[in-house]
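Consider today's protein:

***
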Amino acid sequence: MNTWYERVRTLTLRLVSWPSITNTAGETQFGQRLFDLLATQPYFQAHPENLRLERTAHDLHERYNVFALVRGTGPRTVALASHYDVVGIANYGSLAEWAYAPEELLPRLIDELERAPTGAGDQLALTDLRSGAYLPGRGALDMKSGLAAGIALLERFAQEPSAQGNLLLIATPDEEEASHGMRTAASLLPKLAGEWGLELQAAINLDASGERDDDGAGRAVYLGTVGKLLPSVLLIGRESHAGSPFDGVNPNLLAAELTRRVECNVALADNAAGAVAPPPVSLKQADLKAHYDVTMPHAAWCYFNLLTHRRTVAEVMELMVSLTRSALDDALAYLGTQSLRYAELHGRPVREKQWQPTVLTVAELMVRVQERGGVDAQRRLDELTARLATDPSMDLPLFSRHVVEVLWSLSGLVGPAAVVGFGSLYYPPAYLEGATPRQARLREAVTKHVSGVARESGVSIQLRPFFPGISDMSFLGSSPTADDIAIMTANTAAWASRIRFDYQALGALDLPTINIGPWGRDYHQRTERVQMPYSFEIVPELIWRIARDVLHAQPTD
């Protein structure tokens, strides 16, 4: 297996040296740089028609996908998928100047860790970096070493005199925010396959995995990926002067009660195939008051990161509506109890308010607005979404909040109330069941070669059901149901104006997908580092063997 290391390392250093932070000029330039790099290779000099640069669709930022096809014989094709955008470098502090130069960063990072270690994590990083087995740098792990492995595989495949099938490398931007790259690529794949005469058999995503401990959990092939929804709730109170707190309802109380029910609630953790997803966490909780006075806020906004393995969109919506309703009921019951106690302390007559909370989904609120406001309400909503849709500084949850606020204002309803929807892009879960002939062939190849490569290398490689973080796999290997799509689109305020994707086409693509990528520690941190022996040698060899098996297999369907 000593054939990959130096080439993958060289390519990793080259790719890391090109800054490509999401939504920056570096990301825009990276696609062209990669295209130019591939264009210098002998294969693509002889076959320039097999190399394409395609701009991402429905995207406020200029960025590009790269498609690179190396042909053997026959139409059978394995796709290798990799993203090239990275997160920012502010957390490197004084070392930011060398964040894209791993060999220069290495001694400086070691020196900084020796002088001022801040805990067990820094001590582990110091031990790793001193060992000579790890390479630091922004994107070295997540995931330019994965892209480097993909390029090395193309080069090796192009040198095979009698290669069967084809390898297609897909390099995409924007994985770190909204997957514009892979959503565009997935939409183009059927068209490209038709033009190039390809029969897509499988996809191998090259994303990175990591672990804090050295138990080998990150050295793995993943048969699927978690799904993600962003349940978002607008909570509407009743304003009152702070000196008369029981005359109103503070939406901060409603939001706090809801967050208490959701935050790290293990009962809400989805599970399948022996794996348990992390429980949901709050990513935002804030009232919407823009200035100081002694009046209670009128509304609050919160949203939660909720990961799925098997849970449907309908089940998530039902769950969130139920949690929100019970949160409002309990918060108002608490408020009533405190009101009674306060009245008793003052010896005054009890004036308990009997609040009747309303809980609606975004879809239900939209129906009410259309019935009540008709054409005028729709015109106002259209004007708002058209104005906000062209603002690249506005993220999807904030866009959603503005739309839901306007819907509420047009509804004629009053608080206390809550509106439940989804505030961002839906990432469907994916899992390689083995239910179809293509899935079964891929699973068989994975099982065979994970065992073989682990035995030959002496390195433990695990077979795990779900990639633990959201990934572009969601837009290659998933098949969301029509019900899931309908409920998601009806309750996503940003749908059609800021989010566009043909989820139904994923089912038609039906592409068996796994993840095999580099391994290391601390991605997105200043101590991000890739473990070179595994990532530069074992990973490409394992992918090579699995891909060749899939390409050589005889079709049975």
About this structure: Residues 5-96+138-226+429-477+512-552 form a domain with the Aminopeptidase fold (CATH 3.40.630.10).
